[in-house]
Structure formats: C-alpha cells, structure tokens
Amino acid sequence: MHQAPSPPPREPDTLILGIGNLLLSDEGLGPRLVRRLEIESGPGAPFRCLDGGTLGFTLATDIAGFARLIVVDVAALGEPPGTIRVFEDTAMDTHLRAHASSVHEVGLADLLDITRLTDSLPQPRALVAIEPERIDWGEHLSPSVEAALPGAIAAVHALLRRWGR
C-alpha cells in the first residue's frame, strides 16, 4: 500500500525578536530569552527566534517577512525590577513612542515605522517588556530579571496560543 507523502513543513509565520546587548547586564535579556526559547522548542517550532542585538535598520527586512511579531526587551516601566508587561498592537506603538529614548542603534519605534511605511508591519505584534534592575557592564542578568525569565517565556507562549500558533 502506497502512503501519501506528508505535506512539507510549514514555514514559521511568527518572529520572536530578542533585542539587547549581552555585555550590559539586564540589557542582554532579549537575546538570552530567544536563545532559551529556541533550545526549548527545538526544530519545527511555529516561530523563528532572532537575536536582534542592539537593533539596526537591516532588521526591517527580517520583520517584514513575518505575519506576526513578538519583541522581547527590557524597558523602563516605572515598576519594581523584574516586572513583566505585555503591550500589543497599538498599545505597543503608544508605549514605544512615549519611551522613545533607547540605548540601541535605532529605536524599536523607528524600526517598526520602516515596516509600516513599506506596508509590511506584522499584525498582530507585541512587546514583552521587563523592568531592568541594572544596566551596567556585566555579562549576567540581575537576580530579579533572571527570576523573571520563566514568566516572560510564559507570556510569549500565551501570545502564541492566543494567536493560534
């Protein structure tokens, strides 16, 4: 009996972008989180993880290739260190514009504006933000941000479930 060929694996349609600098303690949260997600999910995950480093305009091309976007970064939220907040769609845009200063090469708001101008802004999109404790030279996360990592990963998974991925 001949078995029908299995369908080709579906390409991921969600980008999980971790931004930050691994040499600046809590600022390295985004890249560390996407690495952990990539290891935990293994091959065949319905998303692609990308270490966006300290951002750059070239990431607009990466973002434009996906229908959905989740960004993970530290952010000054005015909350206790380790606090996790999720901003979606227009709430994400509003938060990024209100907190436009960035230690990155370009701001995330600028990067998303480029994709908006080329009509390739992912829908839906979200920012998973964690209040830092320390942004200073150092290769390790502070205890409060390290302790928040599982909650931030859970927030990413909750978004993926809600978005049907």
TrEMBL record:
<protein>
    <submittedName>
        <fullName>Peptidase M52</fullName>
    </submittedName>
</protein>
<comment type="similarity">
    <text>Belongs to the peptidase A31 family.</text>
</comment>
<dbReference type="InterPro" id="IPR023430">
    <property type="entry name" value="Pept_HybD-like_dom_sf"/>
</dbReference>
<dbReference type="Pfam" id="PF01750">
    <property type="entry name" value="HycI"/>
</dbReference>
<keyword id="KW-0645">Protease</keyword>
<keyword id="KW-0378">Hydrolase</keyword>
<dbReference type="InterPro" id="IPR000671">
    <property type="entry name" value="Peptidase_A31"/>
</dbReference>
<keyword id="KW-0064">Aspartyl protease</keyword>
